[in-house]
Design goal:
- By secondary structure, this protein is α/β, with parallel strands linked by helices.
- It is 31% helix and 18% strand.
- The chain has 21 helices and 29 strands.
- Strands 9-6-5-4-3-2-1-10 form an eight-stranded parallel beta sheet. It has a six-stranded mixed beta sheet with strand order 11-16-15-14-12-13, sandwiched between helices. A five-stranded mixed beta sheet has the order 20-28-27-22-23.
- Strand 4, helix 8 and strand 5 form a beta-alpha-beta unit.
- The radius of gyration is 27 Å and the shape is globular.
- The chain starts with a helix and ends in a 6-residue tail after the last strand.
Length: 781
């Protein structure tokens, strides 16, 4: 107790000095943060230090029959608080109880009690973490935005930043200062169950949108996170989105140059340009090495090369997985030793309390250096000071009156509007005329669960209907828009909502077909039920047999079918796309997705989304837009043998239609020749040549025409979004550094080589030449 009082005295002194600093208009700086960290770290016991490196799920300290669930209504178990916070001095708690959203009142009561106990024991506040993925997942009444894949489709950084700001505010309203987001995995395999959690297949889009999220979460000063902001946690470092099997948490094989050039780059940007405070590690393995045991990736690439001073946290139970799943160690003790020495700072255990005595013993035996523990604890304390938790470890929910406000909801609706992507509009069948009779059908027609997807009020999203009754499904929104007398519902196919995500009930297709007899349009809502992570693995990328049969039967009625896709990943539609008069991709648009779709189908909103991935046509033809030339040759080989590959896609990356038309003209590059390091300016005129106001995303691509390693056919280098009235023109200008054209060579070094580059916006292109070669000696440009 004497030591604890001494720590409290030091903290009080720090707070006093901090108040003086603030009154003297001295901004929070890293130097001052380090002083405060030193003052606490110098007086901590080994047991207290190890406690700061541990994180447990809240059910462990909840009243209930076991560690894995809690009684309802939720309350804390004082005996377990004695163990977790009293005996083991644990520094972090995560998650919600019983996998269920809580009110801000419950969050306030729970976290206040945890913090009071933690401070009583050590003087050090707990940092509470949560997965607030498209809004505050586990808080009832929170504002839900489109999932990341939909936010990427907006190609609008401002919308992404605004969404992150609102999510941060509402996370703080829940008394939670740490968000395990954004997901920075470059989703380049359409089979993967977490495509929808990513910003799609492109490295640049992931880097730009991920950094925008970090800025929205953390604000302008990462050393002084404000009361309306939270710490970001980039995940899942690194290469998580391309498992060879397509299944979650299975091995990836990634070339060294792709690993650095395409998968590391978004994390680098969010750390160097966004100052992200923490990072979560990939649960799988790369090239046979378990990422949680990879010293090179965690310590060398991240901490040394980038000077990253934040927290590296494991994913759920992934230290244990080194033993039980990956079989790279003989026992749990070795798993702890290997992961901590590789660079892990905090272990999301989340149940096994033996982690703490195990690590203590490893330090005492010299198998884990005291300096490694001190470095990890310094990082944890640094984040807590940056978050202001030593000054204010808990707060009142009433300090956040805009939680779930109309203003926040309007921002979510605007994001859904700009995310929805029109992929086909044969003979301008859309917008639907006022007064039309509409049949709404399909398993996604009347479900808030499917509109939101996973990480919505629960992990798998299966509890959404309990919390989202006040919002509109697709059917409800269309009924509101076109009139209840003009819109009817007959689903034909439904999901088994108590089974696995892919399970469906016995279909009643004939009933849906009969219901179409007296309507003008059929709005057919197909896709996926909600899922998340490994439970979302699939065996077949096509839509279900029932859904395909429903579509084909409805198309045979002769009534125009508007195919609405509501899915986390691009399910194959080649059998039903040809006879669909229109195709609309909604992704997972959130609680306002039904309203946004209704506004688009009615013409009240002009669609402006563009695909953030390549929509495949065949399961054996999965490809990304930035493929190698040999993967899709434009011309046949001459002679007796033709080895040229051809790959068909349903829709290309960046594709999306509008109710108006846009014309591009006057593409200009400000210089015909450039040297490494010089700025290059590309401009293009865009005109709204149609009759309605519209928004257009302009994408600037480059192609390295000849390189020492076979170049990608093209790479996205910049994008911007403009709104134009009918007949209005605008010149859009992109400025980039020539070094951004570099690639990682066979020796693993960034290089830009002398030669020609093609610059392309829309169907316009021009050539400029790099006049010299440059090779970087450092790992990063």
């Amino acid at each position: 107790m004497i030591k604890n009082r001494y720590i409290l005295l030091l903290c009080a002194l720090s707070i006093s000095l901090w108040s003086v600093a603030q009154k003297s208009n001295i901004k929070n700086t890293k130097h001052y943060i380090e002083y405060r960290v030193d003052s606490v770290l110098a007086n901590m016991t080994l047991e207290e230090k190890v406690g700061q490196m541990a994180q447990y799920t809240v059910d462990v300290i909840g009243k209930g029959g076991n560690l894995y669930s809690s009684d309802e209504p939720f309350s804390l178990n004082n005996a377990m608080l004695d163990t977790v916070l009293g005996k083991y001095k644990v520094g972090s708690i995560l998650n919600t109880a019983n996998n269920r959203a809580r009110t801000t009142e419950v969050w306030e009561q729970t976290i206040k009690a945890i913090q009071q106990r933690a401070i009583k024991e050590t003087g050090i506040p707990v940092v509470y973490g949560i997965d607030a993925i498209h809004g505050v997942t586990y808080t009832a009444g929170a504002t839900f935005f489109p999932q990341e894949i939909g936010m990427a489709a907006t190609f609008n950084r401002d919308l992404v930043t605004k969404g992150a700001e609102i999510t941060a505010y509402e996370t703080r309203a829940s008394n939670i200062p740490w968000n395990f987001s954004p997901t920075m995995d470059v989703g380049r395999d359409a089979r993967w169950s977490r495509i929808w959690e990513s910003f799609g297949e492109d490295t640049y889009v992931n880097a730009e949108m991920g950094t925008a999220v970090v800025r929205g979460y953390q604000g302008d000063n990462h050393n002084a996170i404000g009361p309306n902001n939270v710490a970001a946690c980039l995940k899942h470092y690194i290469g998580y989105g391309v498992p060879v099997s397509g299944k979650d948490r299975t091995p990836a094989i990634i070339s060294e140059n792709d690993l650095r050039e395409k998968f590391f780059e978004p994390f680098r940007a969010a750390i160097v340009e966004g100052d992200a405070l923490s990072i979560m590690v990939n649960s799988g393995m790369i090239n046979g090495v378990s990422t949680h045991a990879d010293y090179r990736l965690m310590t060398e690439w991240l901490k040394k090369d980038l000077n990253f001073d934040g927290v590296v946290v494991t994913d759920w139970a992934d230290v244990q997985n080194l033993l039980s799943r990956d079989h790279i160690v003989h026992n749990y003790r070795d798993a702890v030793r290997v992961s901590i020495n590789a660079g892990i700072d905090m272990v999301m255990e989340p149940y096994n309390l033996t982690f703490l005595p195990t690590l203590i013993d490893l330090v005492k035996s010299g198998e884990v250096a005291q300096s490694r523990v001190d470095d990890a604890v310094r990082r944890v304390l640094r984040m807590k000071f940056r978050l202001g938790l030593f000054d204010k470890p808990y707060w009142s929910r009433h300090e956040y009156p805009n939680f779930g406000s109309k203003q926040h909801e309007a921002a979510a609706k605007a994001a859904a509007d700009e995310s929805i992507t029109l992929l086909k509009n044969e003979n301008n069948i859309l917008p639907i005329k006022k007064g039309s009779k509409i049949l709404v059908t399909g398993p996604n027609a009347n479900s808030m669960r499917t509109l939101n997807g996973g990480w919505s009020y629960s992990w798998q999203g299966e509890k959404t209907e309990d919390f989202a009754e006040q919002y509109n499904t697709i059917y409800e929104a269309l009924r509101n828009k076109f009139g209840s007398a003009n819109v009817k519902l007959e689903e034909g196919v439904t999901y088994n909502m108590v089974g696995q995500y892919f399970e469906e009930n016995e279909p009643n297709i004939d009933k849906a077909v009969n219901a179409a007899s007296d309507v003008d349009y059929i709005v057919l809502a197909l896709g996926e039920n909600s899922y998340c992570e490994t439970p979302g693995n699939l065996e077949e990328l096509s839509l279900s047999d029932n859904q395909i049969a429903l579509a084909l039967a409805l198309q045979q009625t002769g009534k125009p079918v508007i195919l609405v896709l509501n899915e986390g990943r691009p399910r194959l539609i080649r059998k039903i796309e040809p006879n669909s008069k229109a195709v609309v991709q909604t992704y997972l648009p959130g609680n306002f997705g039904g309203d946004a779709l209704a506004d688009i189908l009615s013409g009240d909103v002009n669609p402006s989304g563009k695909l953030p991935y390549t929509y495949p046509k065949f399961e054996q033809s999965l490809i990304t837009y930035d493929h190698k030339p040999s993967q899709n040759l434009d011309q046949k080989m001459e002679g007796a043998y033709d080895y040229g590959a051809e790959t068909s896609v349903q829709y290309p990356f960046g594709f999306g239609l509008s109710y108006t038309t846009f014309e591009y003209a006057n593409l200009k590059i400000d210089k015909a020749e450039f040297a490494p390091g010089e700025l290059i300016t590309v401009s293009v005129d865009v005109k709204n040549s149609g009759s309605v106001t519209g928004k257009e995303s302009l994408l600037l691509f480059t192609s390295d025409l000849v390189a020492s390693l076979t170049p990608d056919v093209r790479r996205l280098r910049a994008f911007d979004k403009v709104e134009l009235q009918p007949g209005q023109s605008k010149t859009v200008t992109f400025t980039m550094n020539a070094d951004e054209l570099a690639f990682v060579n066979a020796e693993g070094k960034w290089t830009i080589e002398e030669g020609e580059f093609r610059f392309q916006v829309g169907d316009l292109a021009d050539i400029a030449k790099c006049t010299q070669t440059k090779i970087w000696d450092t790992p990063n440009r």
